Amino acid sequence: MTKRQITVGQLFATLFISRMITNITYSSTISSSNSIWDQIISSGVAFILTFFMIIPVYLICNKRESMNIADMSYFLIGKIGIIFVFIYAVYYIFICIYSLSLFNNFVTNVMDPNISIILMSIAVMITASYAAFKGIEALVRASGFILFLIILAGIFIIISLFPQINALNYEPLMYDGNQDVVKGVILMLSTTSCIPAMAMLIPLAKGKVKKGIVLWNVAIYASIAVFIFAIVGTLGDYVKTQLFPVYTASMIAGIGFLKNLDSLYLGIWTTGLFIKVSLFLLLFSMCIKRVFGDLAGRISIFIGAFFVVVISVLANSTQYFNGYIYNINFLFGFTLLTSIIIPLILLIVDFIKSRRRKESEKVKL
Amino acid sequence: MLNFIKNLVELYENPHNKTVYKRKVEKMSDSLEKNIIYIKKEFDGSADLTIRQMKINETSMAIITIEGMINKQIFANSVLTPIVNCDFINKNSVEKYEYIRDHLLSTTEQVQVVTYDEVFSFIMSGFAVIAIDGCNCMLAIGVQGFNFRSVSEPTSEVMQRGSREGFVEPLRINMTLIRRRIKNPKLKFEMLKSGSVSNTDICLCYLTDIVSGEILQKIRSKLHKIDLGTILASGYVSPYLEEENDISFFSSVGMSERPDTVCGKIAEGRVAILIDGTPNVLIVPHLFIENFQNMDDYTTRPYFATLTRWLKYVAFFVATLLPGIYVATVTFNPELLPRELLVKIANSVASTPFPLVLETLIIHFIYEIMREAGLRLPKPLGHAVSIVGGLVIGDAAVSAGLIGAPTLMIVALTAISSYVIPNLYEPIAILRFIFIIIGGIMGVWGITLLFSIVLINICAKTNYGIPFSAPMSPFSAFGMRDVVVRMGWKTLAKKQNAVQTMPGSNINVNKE
Which domain holds residue A19? Predict the structure, then answer.
């Protein structure tokens, strides 16, 4: 029986931060497209599709209120359910690796820091392990403060960018066909790692989940649309050559004496990354805990963190790992598996089981 | 040898059971001589034990006191004179005892004691104890008159407006200071004893109709677990009131020397813990945001109180983060600084022999030494230390090119800011050093990550079932009326804000 420890507001604030840091890494390089501007349509399409993606997870979490997806897997298909739990554990750790290696990529290629990437990765993971070890309540409470800071910084950057927007930078939408729109939708949906996270966290939250989902989804895609609008209007064609266009835009942003707002971007990303990696590390430990018990769950935080550091550092140095981690199709497939396919399988099993139960009850009567 | 091994095993099994002084629960005899011998033996010829033996109307009596603990004038007028002058020749010992108790004495505090333990407790609290031969009980009479510091303004919590009274060392005086402000029968004082050697009086103070029974029970249970021999200050007790296994920079036990502050907290459902011999009263549960609130906030106009509240928030961040950010930015990300400022700082760094991180650490270390010296020395010497340290050393070091003027300014600004929130001085001082070191090693990322750790550290704390970070996170819009702004009293008074109703609290709201 899972105790409801957090509120829906806290849950979706944490998930919003986790998604926001993916949004600010948005680029044509990552989406393998030519026009970011076309992807403003993608954000509308992805907004609607995300609602459909959430339905299986929402339904499975509502079947038995106190059970998360790991508990449901065990409950419905017995020990075979361990396979599903294992898939979720791998997915959560993969998201940690993806987020950290993207951050490392940014630091190496854009910032040229004077400190070692390995040291930085270790520091991030030590911090994240500490937060994950402290538990979900500590994490969501900290997210409340960080969300406030991120929103303030985000609004400040956006407002400071608006005077520099040039209307001529906006080309006609879908001028080169709809390929970029499709690629944008795939990228946006593949980075919706929050849905598999919801599968573990919704049973912990008290409050109106439906309202939370709607507000979260609206906020996410509205922020994506605003980012696209701002960076295209500010950078124009220059956006196509930038690895991290939101960072580039924040570098040229400024109001009055406040110039070089890239430090705000750095602050948003580092704190957001910390929240995201902590959250997914915690989710990983919850899966391990479900299979091997409480102590193993706690130890797994540090083991998981070690793997994340090793693989994300390797990913930055070798093309082999790099190819897998930044392969959008692979990420899209993995996200679909954990967001839709597994919850749907569990729903079908539950449906069949309840039908059989009803039939046997009828026979008895 | 066997006994030694047995004792060793017992000590190993019960490490906390190292009682040096075992309390006597032995009942007293009806022989005065035996009782006096027993008491004298227990005190082992202590110079301050005074036993005045006399024979009145054929009855042997004794008055037992501790030198310097009683008011001799009250004792002579209210106790000794009536007893010496009375006539109860036809009564037996018990009747004489009852006569003295019911008709003779004019003091208000009279307690019948039947065990030696009680006798010791009362005489050491300034009572005079009357023992009569043939009676197996004694009468403790309240004639306390020991010397103590008079009620004065607390130097550690100076306020512009409001009361000038501060707590003093005797527990009973502190109780009256609270009672005078909350004239309500629901205000309850609950006495406990702690410390196996010092037998220190500890008093829980709360409003029975507001306090949560669950919180109160937890506090009682924690206080009963104290395994100290002596309790000489409130700082001895506060670690026992924190949550178990809680490793944190910040304390979840509040402390105040001001009766008005303590009364305000009690009215919000908190429990005050008064400890005999110390003017610092502990307050639990204590939330992080309370470190930024003081009595002056509630006596000034709301808009000004809001301004000072925000000054404190800013000062907290400046005091904690500024030196670390300065070191990190100048060392790793100078491009974040405006050009003109960067040129001045770069010139200064280039002209000093030490790396910036070391320079900042050294200045901070010297500042902490000067602060400590100024604090411990007599006041006139303390001023001299400030002048020598601040002006002579500081100015000379900059002129000699040993340290940079911008670094010195940063340290000075940080030092001043840290005094804006005196409750948080200790964690700020430690965190500041850590932020400087991390900023010097890992730059802005290190600062951000360390800040995240501190944030998690604050958010992970739960104080008697109430989140330490409430009402900011978990968020309560209602709670913001005394956090983001300080609303006027007309708004604040609309709804009582008991601590157990904070968002995220898992405390049962049931009253005591």
Answer: 6-355
Q: CATH number of the domain that A162 lies in?
A: 1.20.1730.10
Sign of the torsion angle spanned by Cα atoms B438, B439, B441, B444: positive
3-state secondary structure of B63: strand
**Between B148 and B287, residue with greater pLDDT:** B287
Assigned domain for A233 exists:
yes
Q: Would the CB atoms of A134 and B456 count as touching at under 8 Å? A: yes
**A206 belongs to a structural domain:** yes
Asked if pLDDT for residue B325 goes beyond 80, the answer is yes
For residue B236, what are the contacts with CB-CB under 8 A and spacing of at least 6? B228, B230
What pLDDT score was predicted for residue B7? Answer: 55
Q: How far apart are the first and last CA of chain A?
A: 32
Enter the ipTM. Answer: 0.90
pLDDT at position A201 over 70: yes
Among A146, A259, A270, select the one facing B445 at the smallest CB separation. A270
pLDDT attached to residue A1: 44
Among the listed residues B458, B475, B287, the one whose alpha carbon sits nearest the alpha carbon of residue A8? B475
Mean pLDDT of B54-64: 86
For residues B263-286, one letter each, b for 16 or more C-beta atoms within 10 angstroms of the residue's C-beta and e for the rest, the string is: bbbbbbbbbbbbbbebbbbbbbbb
Helical ranges in B400-499 per DSSP H? 405-418, 425-460, 489-492
A134 part of contact set with chain B, CB < 8 Å: yes
A116 to chain B nearest CA, in Å? 9
C-alpha dihedral sign at B331, B333, B337, B340: positive
**Residues B467, B468, B469, B472, CA torsion sign:** positive
Report yes or no on A364 lying in a domain: no
- Find residues 3-22 of chain A whose CB sits inside 8 Å of chain B: 7, 9-10
B181 Ramachandran zone, left/alpha/beta (phi>0; psi -120 to 50): alpha
Which chain A positions have a beta carbon within 8 Å of B446's beta carbon? 123
The closest alpha carbon to B121, from B232, B324, B276, belongs to B276
pTM here is: 0.87
Place of tokens 């070690």: A306
Q: Are B66 and B123 in contact (CB under 8 A)?
A: yes
pLDDT category of residue B16 using cuts at 50, 70 and 90: very low
d(C-alpha B435, C-alpha A239), whole Å = 36
| Number of structural domains chain A divides into | 1
Q: Is the dihedral of CA A176, A181, A184, A190 positive or negative?
A: negative
Length of chain A: 365
- Would residue B275 be called left, alpha or beta, if left means φ above 0 and alpha means ψ between -120 and 50 degrees? beta
Instruction: Write down the residue that tokens 């003017």 correspond to.
Output: B279
**Residue A144 to residue B474, Cβ atoms within 8 A:** yes
Three-state DSSP string of B351-377: CCCCCHHHHHHHHHHHHHHHHHHHHHC
What are the domain boundaries of chain B? 12-142, 171-298, 299-460
Whether A360 maps to a domain, the answer reads no
pLDDT digits (tens, 9 = 90+) for B415-425: 999 999 999 99
CB B215 within 8 Å of CB B271: yes
Q: Which of B448, B455, B469 sits opposite A270 (nearest CB)?
A: B448
Distance in angstroms (rounded) separating the CA atoms of residues A254 and B88: 97
User: What distance in Å separates the CA atoms of residue B429 and residue B431, rounded to the nearest whole number?
Assistant: 6
CB of A263 within 8 Å of any CB in chain B?
yes
Share of chain B above pLDDT 90, in %: 46
